[in-house]
């Protein structure tokens, strides 16, 4: 694996004949890598000839400065895991490389409804920051295929929307959420949880399964409220438990028994905000 920090270096590498003739798969990350990230690298490895991973903790997508400051950094272990998984290029830019002075960071993306709910509502500006960095990375790497995790369900929809406008030929592949054996979705933020909190955090998956096992056509309010109560009783501060159309993310107050729906959860355990989702049917 080669490790590059400069945009010109990564572009030079990808422009060489032996790389140019192959398709490029791209996995953008913020580091503190775990098996969830590595599953994306492996999927990219299977489907493309050159696999590029980026690690960049993007300041413009953090609406909470404390969250940004405390974001885990484990670069040595990240490099080891990426090499083991067969990643070809690690792009490791500094903030000044991505957003040089005078760089237009106020580019606005028209995301419409999808940005007004759930993560968009609770983390104002977050998806603009996500689009900004992904747009910039896609311009630099120009991959054929982009690999994303279903763990960030709404983010996948947002990036699809942005890419449909600016990168219409890009193939986007969404990979399933990797979980610990306890059901807890793997996440870089889990590194901030104590051992006891890691056990408590499994309540998110249990609650989503409770919703899945108990959902029936008709009004969903009671089920949704029960799910919130279950998490609150375990010590979570719940931002939302939402049941939504899996294609549009329109929130569902009632269900006709046919529409494909998804439950999405965001909740704080102590200071750590966790998100997860599960397709219900
Ligand atoms: P992040 O480093 O959190 O920005 O995530 C980078 C990519 O990895 C995103 O596409 C995430 O959706 C994906 N990802 C994060 N956690 C998981 C997981 N547990 N399973 C699968 N993909 C994941």
Highlighted features:
281 residues, alpha/beta, six-stranded parallel β-sheet, 11 strands, binds adenosine monophosphate
Number of strands: 11
Lateral strand order in the biggest sheet: 1-4-3-2-5-6
Shape: globular
Low-pLDDT runs of 5+ residues are: none
Oligomeric form: single chain
The whole-number mean of residue pLDDT values reads: 96
Helical proportion, percent range: 25-40%
Q: Kindly, what is the distance between the CA atoms of the first and last residues, rounded to a whole number of angstroms?
A: 40 Å
Q: How large a portion of the residues is in β-strands, by DSSP E?
A: 15-25%
Number of helices in the DSSP assignment: 12
Biggest sheet layout: 6 strands, parallel
Summing up helix and strand content along with how strands pair, one would put the structural category as alpha/beta
Bound molecules: adenosine monophosphate
> What is the CA-atom radius of gyration, in angstroms?
19 Å
Helix-strand pattern = EHHEHEHHEHHHEHEHHEHEEEE
Summarize the structure.
40% of the residues lie in helices and 21% in strands. The protein has 281 residues and is α/β, with parallel strands linked by helices. Strands 1-4-3-2-5-6 form a 6-stranded parallel β-sheet, with helices on both faces.
